[in-house]
């Protein structure tokens, strides 16, 4: 897989409509259902609608409230702000390890998705998927950021050791980014660091402020 490195090339690609998130197939159950129903793996109108749901959920969570949770696991803090007080960290970890296609034990993730849906009301819909998706995407990256900033400024960590070092995009047409030629249909890996650590453009992580609030709370 080709790599797109360097801030300017990465920024250009992330803001280029000729590149999309690699698609995932439709599904009705398990982690495959979650992927097919969240904004993270969607495009077009579905992405806009689902992203708006995620933003609305985050907008209802006060940053100061997150800072007040101190060393509590970020997933537990976010879940409480969403109205779920039951233990969810292990369930979310089980989903997170297989959230990206082909990366983990899907059987374990499938079982965890069923239990999380039940905790969020038992309905397999976009609203439920948005809540679970936010927890999954906050799980390992936010904990990594908390750990790495214990003895270093957050800006240095995001520049030198970002918790999500790269993302993938698929080219819709043959194009050139910097000195890299990408064929139509080809998937490339895009480096994320510094001011791009939370992405850029229409798919920029909507939870940046919330992640940083959790980091601040954990360090206080």
Could you name the ranges where pLDDT drops below 50 across 5 or more consecutive residues? none
* Alpha-carbon distance between the two ends: 41 Å
Fraction of residues in helix = 40-55%
CATH topology: Cytochrome p450
| Corresponding CATH architecture | Orthogonal Bundle
Number of strands: 6
**Total individual domains:** 1
> What do the pLDDT scores average to?
98
CATH class: Mainly Alpha
* Structural class computed from helices and strand pairing: alpha+beta
Largest sheet: 4 strands, mixed
String of helices and strands? EHEHHHHHHHHEEEEH
What's the helix count? 10
Instruction: Assign the CATH superfamily.
Output: Cytochrome P450
The coarse silhouette is globular
Rg, alpha carbons = 17 Å
Overview in brief:
This protein has ten helices and six strands; from the N terminus they run βαβααααααααββββα. With 220 residues, the chain is of the alpha+beta class. The chain has one domain: Orthogonal Bundle (Cytochrome p450).
């Amino acid at each position: 897989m080709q790599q797109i490195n360097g801030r300017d090339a990465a920024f250009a690609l992330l803001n280029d409509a000729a590149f999309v998130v690699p698609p995932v197939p439709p599904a009705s159950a398990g982690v495959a259902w979650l992927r097919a129903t969240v904004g993270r793996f969607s495009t077009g109108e579905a992405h806009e609608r689902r992203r708006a749901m995620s933003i609305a959920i985050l907008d209802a969570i006060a940053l100061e409230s997150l800072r007040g949770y101190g060393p509590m696991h970020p997933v537990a803090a976010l879940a409480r702000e969403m109205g779920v007080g039951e233990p969810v960290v292990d369930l979310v970890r089980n989903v997170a390890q297989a959230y990206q296609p082909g990366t983990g034990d899907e059987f374990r993730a499938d079982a965890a998705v069923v239990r999380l849906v039940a905790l969020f009301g038992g309905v397999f819909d976009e609203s439920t998927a948005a809540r679970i998706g936010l927890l999954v995407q906050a799980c390992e990256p936010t904990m990594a950021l908390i750990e790495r900033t214990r003895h270093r400024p957050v800006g240095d960590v995001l520049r030198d050791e970002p918790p999500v070092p790269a993302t993938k995009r698929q080219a819709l047409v043959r194009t050139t980014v910097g000195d890299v030629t990408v064929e139509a249909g080809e998937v490339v890996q895009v480096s994320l660091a510094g001011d791009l650590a939370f992405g850029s453009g229409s798919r920029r992580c909507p939870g940046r402020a919330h992640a940083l609030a959790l980091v601040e709370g954990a360090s206080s």
